[in-house]
Structure formats: structure tokens, C-alpha cells
Amino acid sequence: MSDPVAMSDLDLRTLFLFEKLTDDQLAWIAAHGRTVHLPAGTVVIREGDPAEQFFVLLSGTISLTRKVGQDEVQTVRTEQRGVYMGATQAYLRDDGIPRRYAATMRALDDSDFFVMSSADFGHMMREWFPMAIHLLEGLALGMRSSAAAISERQRLAALGALSAGLMHELNNPAAAASRATGALRQRVAGMRHKLAMLAAGKVPPDRLTALVELQEDVIERAAKAPVLTAMQAADREDELGDWMDEHRVTGGWDIAPVFAQAGIDVDCLDEIEQRVGSPELLDQAIHWIGYALETEQLMSDIEDATGRVSSLVSAAKQYSQMDRAAHQWIDVHGGLDSTLVMLNHKIGNGVTVVKDYDRTLPQIPAHPAELNQVWTNLIDNAVQAMNGAGTLTVRTHRDDEHVIVSIGDTGPGVPDDLKKRVFEPFFTTKPVGEGTGLGLDISYRIVVNGHGGDIHLESRPGDTQFKVRLPLTEPASA
């Protein structure tokens, strides 16, 4: 680095940043700034360091890079004379937030800069352009406040939507269990009535015992019966209904669907007739066995419904990370599965979900509740992009020392000119009122800043993928 030297007023006026200033203002700047020569390869400023200087490029080529995970991503490369960087927001009032360089700047060639301290630059701006500073402060603070307010509102809206969806998902099995319980009560009452009728019919004890054993045999056979297609079940119902008509079973066509659903065929009915042994008892025996089969089916329905409720509650706990540490070692598949369950009402029947998981992936250090927010944003965006019809693909695999989670959809894709803007705050491709433009910005900050990872977009019509790259090792910010 060469020794700093002063810059003349005339030379300062050749820079577009200062060309409209008065002679006195130029003289003040010349007195408070210096030129500096730096050799090629010099790191001029480093991202994250305190922002103490304001730089204007006089000659040479510089690059600006930002840290993304473990990589340095170049955002700007320029040799334009007069471009500025460094403590560009030194004029903002002191709100207790330390000002830091937002990027790393390197001199690619031997370069010359005009340099001012952040204190002098901030003082100059506040004193000379008070109205402009008020506008800039209002803009900066307003955007910060708006982002915070909208982000909070977006979280509340997402929570409300997820709660409504969860209640909808819970209502279905709960209602099914309630209906099955009511029907079960009626069938049990019918069984008691039929048993009383059998007993009152002076059935020999050995025959009644045989009938009870027959009931258990039929239920066991039904439990092992293969599942029938809709066409096979309809044909089976016709066969059973005809058999019951021929044997004068009352209400045979109402009972036939129960036997068909249980996988009972005509051969089984012939066996029942043979073991009952009495034409007079056959009608009551068929009805009694029908009630037994239906109670078994209803109890299975109740078991399935309550199991579904339990699974939903478990998914909700996994999604919200209740009773869990904020930072822990996790299997990413648990969060992905619970998010898919929570968003099932949004995904709908028109979207096919394909899960291509690498189950051999190791656990990673993460904030699981925050990652679930990322999965929610990406899956929700994918579903909206497909407009209710398409394929949602959730894929995981390992890439060296990182886990890759890919959320893909078969929507129309993102145009090339918009790809680089999707992570910008407030930028959205959705219609007015349907998006805040903060979902991907929040996801980016969670993945990059919170986990030391990376997230990027690959898109063409019919194949859009957001790929989240998460390190296998503990990030420095964790």
C-alpha cells in the first residue's frame, strides 16, 4: 500500500458522485479524504468487519463477493471509475446497530481509491443534505419496519392457515370415528337382540355353541381375505344377494355388501348353512354373523381414525418442535414429512407427491423449527406454481460434506430474467394480495445466515427446483 495523498478539487469534480458540488464542498472533501494505491490481490475490505471507510474507485478493477455457506460468491466485478462502496450507510442515525461491511472487496488489478472515514462521510451527508438524509432514513427504517411487520404477519397468517388445515385434517378422522361409534352401538344392540331371539327359539346348546364358533371362524376368515377391487366387490355382492334370495334370508340385499366387504364368498355361505344345520335358524344366523362382521369393520374404522388423529398430532408436534431444543442434531426427513402432513390440505388431490429420500444420510446440526419454515415456504410456493395439478418432488441426497434437499414442481417455471431476483425482499411473482415477497427472503436468511448453507433455484418449464444445501458439520453461527 502506498502512502495516502490528497486529491485536488478539480480531480474530485471528475467523479460523477461529486460533480454537482460547490467549490467549498469539494475543498472540504479534499481536506478530509485521501487517495490510496493498492496492489493487485489486496483484500480492501472484508465482509462482516466494522464499516469504517468509504471508498471511491479511481482506477483499476475490483470485485465484490459475499459469503454463501463455505463459498465466496462474486456479486460485482467492475472497473468503472467513480463507483463507490464500503460505509455507504454511515449517514444513518446511530440506532445501536453496528455498521458492518456487507461484502468483501478485492483489488484484481493495481487500483487507486479515494477514501474517507465513515465518520467524515456521515457528517458530510447529514450536514449538507438534511432533507435527503431524512428521506433516506425514512426509506431504510421504513423498509426495515415493514419487513419486520409483514414478516410477523406472514408468520401469523401461515400459522392460521396451518391451524385451519390441521383442524380440517383432524375433523375427518374424528367425524369418521364418531359415525362409526354410533353405528357400532346400533350393531351391538342388534347382536344382543338376535342372540336373545336365538336363545328364545329353543336352540339346542350344542348348536348354539357351534354357531358361536362359526361366527369366530367367519371373522377370522374375513380378517385374512384379500382386498377386492370395486368391480370385484360389486360382482361378489350380486352373487351373495342371489344366494340369500334363494335361501329366503330376509333383507339379503342389505346384508350382502357387508359380507362382500369382509371377503366372504358363496362357498363360505354354503359352509355356514351346513354348520347351522337348520333352515329355520339360517336367517337369524346370517343376520347375527352379519352384525358381527359389521362390528369388526366398524372397530377397524375407529382404530384407523384414531390412529390418523394420533399421527396428525405427532406430525404437528414434530413440525412445531414442541418440547425440543432450539438447536439439535436432526434427520431432515422428519421435518419434511411433518411439513407435508401439515400442508396436505393445500396440496390437494390434484398434486402427486413423490418422495425420493436417501435414508442413509447422517443427522445434521440445525434449528429444526426454522428449517420447517423453509420447507413450508418452498412447498407452498411449488403447489401454488402448479395451480393444483402436477407433481411435487421432495428429494434428498448427499454431496460431499453437505446434505441437499430439493423441492421440485412441474409448474410453468421462473423466467430467466426473474431468477436472480426471487430471493430479494418484497419481490414476488404472485398476483397482488397473494404474496408478500418475504417467504424466499426469510428462507434464504435461515439457510445461509442461520445454518451456513446455500439455497439456489434451477428452473425451466415443467421442472423447477429449489435446492437447499446444508452442512454436515456444526456451522460457526450455531
Automatic annotation (TrEMBL):
Protein name: histidine kinase
MF terms in GO: protein histidine kinase activity
Top-level taxonomic group: Bacteria
Listed GO biological process terms: phosphorelay signal transduction system
EC number: 2.7.13.3
Enzyme class: transferase
Domain Histidine kinase stretches: 294-474
Transferase is among the record's keywords: yes
SUPFAM superfamilies: ATPase domain of HSP90 chaperone/DNA topoisomerase II/histidine kinase, cAMP-binding domain-like
Domain Cyclic nucleotide-binding: 17-125
InterPro entries referenced in this protein's UniProt entry, alphabetically: cNMP-bd_CS (IPR018488), cNMP-bd_dom (IPR000595), cNMP-bd_dom_sf (IPR018490), HATPase_C_sf (IPR036890), HATPase_dom (IPR003594), His_kinase_dom (IPR005467), RmlC-like_jellyroll (IPR014710), Sig_transdc_His_kin-like_C (IPR004358)
Organism: Paractinoplanes rishiriensis
Keyword annotations from UniProtKB, A to Z: Kinase, Transferase, Two-component regulatory system
Catalytic function, reaction form: ATP + protein L-histidine = ADP + protein N-phospho-L-histidine
